[in-house]
Amino acid sequence: MKQLFIQTCIQPYFVALADEKEILAHQECPFPLSRTLFENTDKILTETQIKKTDLSEICVLKGPGSFSGLRTGLAFTKGLAIALNCPAYGLDTFDLYAFPQRKKALIAFTRTQNDAFFAKFENNKIIFNPLPQTKSDLQQILLDNPDSIRYGEAWKNFDLQENNEKPLTPQLMKEAFHREKKDLTPTYGNTCYAKPISEKNSS
Questions:
Q1: Could you give the domains of the chain?
Q2: Residue 63: left if φ>0, alpha if ψ -120 to 50, beta else—which one?
Q3: Given this model, what pLDDT does residue 187 score?
Q4: pLDDT one-digit tens code per residue, 176-191
Q5: How many CB atoms lie within 10 A of CB 118?
Q6: Phi and psi (nearest 5°) for 17?
Q7: Which residue, among 70, 13, 19, has the nearest Cα to 40 in the 3D structure?
Q8: From CA 146, how far away is CA 144, in angstroms rounded?
Q9: Overall average pLDDT of the 56-67 stretch
Q10: pTM given for the model
Q11: Beta-ladder partners of 105
């Protein structure tokens, strides 16, 4: 089984290729994504001598995250999945840090220079706040949850407490996908809150 992972939500963006056991190859994708995403996908396939038709599934982060990054990544995923008749799965950015062994965690990703996307992981569930959180909002959240583990780069970017180091890597995305896959529906979309649609028929 060969899997393609596409992450265009949080910089640095990347594309990665994996099998059941490990990450086989990966490449960062700087701007312009419309060029580097295509080029670097071809590059890792060439390096590993794997054909596009060998891909068994695609996993893409579907947000929240950078609007322009998501638009490019989701459009690329949709086109590739349809062309190859390959199921594509949309993984929520916050699901990367929904570790079952954690009772409570605070997750924040930078949205702009002034605010962040925020969610709380509690009682084995992700609780997403749809409103952008400012630095003062995050400061209050820390005061209200002093014992919580923190993930995401926004804490450090806003000069708040250091986050618990768990960078967004291809391996982290692969682990989250395997953990969450049983609850996912093959998904395509073109916004950061993509809605699931039916898997493409094999006919």
A1: 2-93+168-183 (3.30.420.40), 95-157 (3.30.420.200)
A2: left
A3: 57
A4: 999 998 888 875 433 3
A5: 24
A6: -120, 135
A7: 13
A8: 6
A9: 93
A10: 0.87
A11: 121, 149
